[in-house]
Design brief:
The complex is a heterodimer of chains A (about 110) and B (about 110).
Chain A (H helix, E strand, L loop, with lengths): L3 E3 L4 E4 L4 E7 L6 E7 L6 E7 L2 E5 L2 E6 L4 E6 L8 E9 L2 E4 L3 E6 L1
Parallel strand pairs in A: 2-11
Antiparallel strand pairs in A: 1-3, 3-8, 4-5, 4-9, 6-7, 7-8, 9-10, 9-11
Chain B lengths: L3 E4 L2 E4 L5 E7 L5 E8 L3 E10 L2 E4 L6 E3 L9 E3 L8 E8 L7 E2 L3 E5 L1
Parallel strand pairs in B: 2-11
Antiparallel strand pairs in B: 1-3, 3-8, 4-5, 4-9, 5-6, 7-8, 9-10, 9-11
The chains are: A mainly beta (about 110), B mainly beta (about 110).
Chain lengths: ~110, ~110
């Protein structure tokens, strides 16, 4: 079983939609969770960083961690064509970042 | 603000050839790492280093070597290239391995 599972999509939504991106993880000891955004032919960039359970909001983006179900979510409100990218969830093990497969998101104008 | 710089951006190799992918960072980060990215597989860790002179294996280390003689540089060596090593390679650095990782722009490698 992979440590972090993520549906690769692609996910296609109209401009203005609310987007929900999700991952599950296997090890209940994981405490730190991240979302990276990767534009085509670029390196990933950190979007959100959360610790343990709960929500974290940054503008149109909300990261949510549910440790009881080992579920990580990223919500994007009022999605824009510029949000079209691959979104990778990740978790920190000692000295290692473990990534999900990444979900390709396309926001149509 | 250079951040993490990878060279070359593109490379085509013949099976059996060797080469070195270069990675340099100017943020004085202790932790550096190499990932490969394949469709549907996400980023998989090849090797990492927690400081100069210290390296360790990640999830997919076979066929690759690394060394860390300085804080700034972390080259990745392909010993004898195979078509299975066709991939996009990313170098990353962070302050200590438990904080935000900064990625380079990637090297697209094709082995024919």
């Amino acid at each position: 079983q992979k440590e972090v599972e993520q549906d690769p999509g692609p996910l296609s939504v109209p401009e203005g939609a609310i987007v929900s991106l999700n991952c599950t993880y296997s090890n209940s000891a994981f405490q730190y969770f991240m979302w990276y955004r990767q534009y085509s032919r670029k390196g990933p960039e950190l979007l959100m960083y959360t610790y343990s359970s709960g929500n974290k909001e940054d503008g149109r983006f909300t990261a949510q961690v549910d440790k009881s179900s080992k579920y990580i979510s990223l919500f994007i409100r009022d999605s824009q064509p510029s949000d079209s990218a691959t979104y990778l969830c990740a978790t920190l093990t000692p000295n290692k970042l473990v990534f999900g497969a990444g979900t390709i998101l396309r926001v149509k104008s | 603000n250079a951040g993490v710089t990878q060279t070359p951006k593109f490379q085509v190799l013949k099976t059996g050839q060797s080469m070195t992918l270069q990675c340099a960072q100017d943020m004085n980060h202790e932790y550096m790492s190499w990932y490969r990215q394949d469709p549907g597989m996400g980023l998989r860790l090849i090797h990492y280093s927690v400081g100069a002179g210290i390296t360790d294996q990640g999830e997919v280390p076979n066929g690759y070597n690394v060394s860390r003689s300085t804080t700034e540089d972390f080259p990745l060596r392909l010993l004898s290239a195979a078509p299975s090593q066709t991939s996009v390679y990313f170098c990353a650095s962070s302050q200590d391995g438990n904080t935000e990782a900064f990625f380079g722009q990637g090297t697209r490698l094709t082995v024919v």
